[in-house]
From TrEMBL:
Coiled coil: none
Domain Mycothiol-dependent maleylpyruvate isomerase metal-binding: residue ranges: 11-94
Molecular function as annotated in GO: metal ion binding
NCBIfam families in the record: maleylpyruvate isomerase family mycothiol-dependent enzyme
Protein name per the record: Uncharacterized protein (TIGR03083 family)
A Pfam family: MDMPI_N
Taxonomic lineage: Bacteria, Bacillati, Actinomycetota, Actinomycetes, Propionibacteriales
Length: 214
């Protein structure tokens, strides 16, 4: 538990530092989350620190029980009303916040931070490398349920990391850095050249993940 909490704090600290250095124009550039700019993604990342449980429940009810619809509305509203500085401060002030997705453990909170951080950096073309120990904690939680949640077709494919001793599935190998394979598992569409293999085109060259997805 201590290692996971330290990894979460480290990831949030690193991401806050990176965001603080972004040129103003970058906050309005697209990310791997389709329809979300950098500011919407950061608003979504920091939503758990700014919304009470009751506020989330009310928002979900207004969205007719659809959490993703609520999350999209909240991200767009907050991105329009909070400055980049406000969002960075919210992230930096909450590096040790104990939030975790309902029904999940701290590993899911780390995954949320890592994946959305990559949505930003890959979308902007920044070659930020997530520390491998954090990626290991996230990737070790990959299972059929998580793959099914994101609607990813991994039939006949084995994902193989080139920088970490990690594989998932069986079949034709698709290889790449661990962080790029994580994005593929989470339904993101990567820039061309990030993955290799005869089936790599399944995961590259299109639009990103639907907005509001964890």
């Amino acid at each position: 538990m201590t290692d996971i909490r330290a990894a979460i704090a480290g990831e949030r600290t690193d991401l806050a530092g990176l965001l603080a250095t972004l040129p103003a124009d970058d906050w309005d550039r697209p990310t791997l989350c389709a329809g979300w700019r950098v500011r919407e993604v950061v608003a979504h990342l920091t939503m758990p620190y700014r919304y009470s449980g009751a506020a989330v429940l009310r928002g979900v009810l207004r969205a007719r029980g659809n959490f993703n619809r609520f999350a999209d509305r909240a991200a767009r509203k907050d991105a329009a009303t909070l400055s980049a500085g406000d969002l960075v401060t919210s992230l930096r002030d909450n590096v040790n916040h104990p939030w975790k997705p309902p029904g999940s453990g701290p590993e899911a909170a780390l995954s949320h931070d890592v994946v959305h951080g990559l949505d930003i950096t890959v979308g902007l073309g920044l070659d930020r490398v997530v520390p491998l120990d954090r990626l290991r904690l996230v990737l070790d939680g990959t299972d059929r349920r998580s793959v099914k949640y994101f609607g990813v077709d991994l039939a006949g494919i084995q994902l193989r990391a080139t920088d970490l001793d990690w594989t998932y599935g069986t079949g034709e190998p698709v290889t790449g850095r661990a962080q790029d394979l994580l994005l593929a598992v989470c339904g993101r569409t990567l820039p061309a050249g990030r993955l290799t293999g005869t089936e790599a085109a399944r995961f590259t060259g299109g639009v990103g993940q639907r907005p509001g997805a964890p």
